[in-house]
Amino acid sequence: MAKAGKTIFVCQECGYESPKWMGQCICGAWNTFVEEKVLPVKESDARRRSPEKKAKAMPLKDVRSGEHIRLDTGINELNRVLGGGLVQGSLTLISGEPGIGKSTLIIQAAAKIAKTIGRVLYVSGEESEEQIKLRADRVCKDGVEELFLLAETNMEEVMDAVEQLKPAFLIIDSIQTMYSGELESAPGSVSQVRACANLLMRAGKGLDIPVFIVAHVTKSGDLAGPKIIEHLVDCVLNFTGERNQELRILRSYKNRFGTTSEIGAFEMAEDGLLEVENLSGSFLEGLEDGAEGAMATAVYEGTRPLLLEIQALTAPSNAGFPRRTSLGIDATRLNMILAVLERKAGISLQGQDVYVNIVGGLRPEGTSTDLAAALAIYSAYKGIGSCARTLAIGEIGLTGELRSVRNSDKIIREAVRMGFTRIFLPVKNAVKSADIAKDIELIPVGNLRDAIRKFTE
Ligand code: TYD
Ligand code: MG
């Protein structure tokens, strides 16, 4: 261990400590080292291993298992992303660009919890009590009697307030502004964030209450400052959206108590965030009949189907090397789809720039949008208008074959609900869903060439 007072370099990605600055860390990350001072080991820490207390391992069969106790946040979209509510004693990180609505979401949840469950302590290192009150007046209908505010950046003070108040829910807004008086380094540095997060974890587990931590991200989407906190918390949520549009999407990237494929949708309104239940409807608003290069498709996110519009544009390229631009779909995936279109469907896109975009700024996971992307590109290139009541799903393989997608029956039901009349889908999915065919025309396709033939008929 390095001597106190000496300078060391700490990787922001994994926390590895090195005596020298390094370009690449042993964890593989580049340019992640920051300078830190080694602090003296406090006596209390040195004496932590007391001779009387011996650690004892427990046989697995004796460990109590049980359902986690969850708090209802009063916001369905948030509950769903968390996996069914806030788990007692858990640490949740919510990250997002400044101004996206993190504080608004949290104060809304705080007021609801304060109304139905008990005291909530909202600690802000960014805004004064008056500023928080202004926002609360705007977005919280009631429940504010049990909502306590504290504008403070010193963690020891915060811990004192927590001891005194014994809240049912604790919020820290934001971790980058907090500091522990026991360390010399600046707020937001690796050691400060680690120390603050550890204090919060102790408070959360000690009082068995959920703790919410707000963190800012940079423009590129990385956590501003140390990423180390992602390893410490139980759940990492990310709040995204365009600041000039109203739609906001909440996703989880890590969840020890649930899946990470759920998304929550909100709309920023005059009086706070509103839950968006009919998300498919909002993504399909602009879909027009006869539009060239537009196609409806669907993905299955978490526990619900989501319909989207995918758009493509091709234009003769001026430069020697044609452009491939994709927004919302993976660039490698787009290149693969283009190669399959060239080889298996016989269209040459070599002299063409290709742009593909998923409307609404969403980045769906999975491959069920492949077929729609291919058909949208084909439709744009050939100038064939598509029908706004037609949907396409299916994964495209390298041989041009169409592979089945998960939960196609639920996707088809959602398509029926949204008024679609035809759906292109992999043969396997069509066979399985034959019983719902009376409400919508199922068009089974075996491969991409087959799909294009049926699309142009
Ligand atoms: P905020 O929650 O302060 O963002 P963050 O904590 O992520 O930095 O939200 C800031 C933006 O939201 C601000 O530009 C104003 C807007 N807003 C509304 O449109 N309606 C509202 O009711 C509130 C409270 C904020
Ligand atoms: Mg804020």
Task: Characterise this structure.
It contains 13 helices and 23 strands. It has 457 residues and is of the alpha/beta class. It has a nine-stranded mixed β-sheet with strand order 8-7-9-10-6-11-12-13-14, with helices on both faces. A four-stranded mixed β-sheet has the order 15-16-18-17. The chain has a three-stranded antiparallel β-sheet with strand order 2-1-3, with no helix packed on it. Helix 9 packs across helix 10 (370-382) and helix 10 crosses helix 13. The longest helix has 18 residues, at 190-207. It is globular and about 80 Å long. It starts with 6 loop residues before the first strand and ends with a helix. Bound molecules: thymidine-5'-diphosphate and magnesium ion. Magnesium ion is lined by residues 102-103, 126, 173.
Query: Taking strands numbered 1, 2, ... along the chain, how are they ordered across the largest sheet?
Result: 8-7-9-10-6-11-12-13-14
Spatial shape: globular
Which residues sit in consecutive blocks of at least 5 with pLDDT less than 50?
none
User: Which distinct ligands sit in these coordinates?
Assistant: thymidine-5'-diphosphate, magnesium ion
Tell me the number of strands: 23
Strand content: 25-35%
Classification by helices and strands: alpha/beta
Number of helices in the DSSP assignment: 13
Q: Over the alpha carbons, how many angstroms does the gyration radius reach?
A: 26 Å
Main β-sheet description: 9 strands, mixed
Average pLDDT taken over every residue: 87
User: Helix coverage percent of residues?
Assistant: 25-40%
Distance between the termini: 73 Å
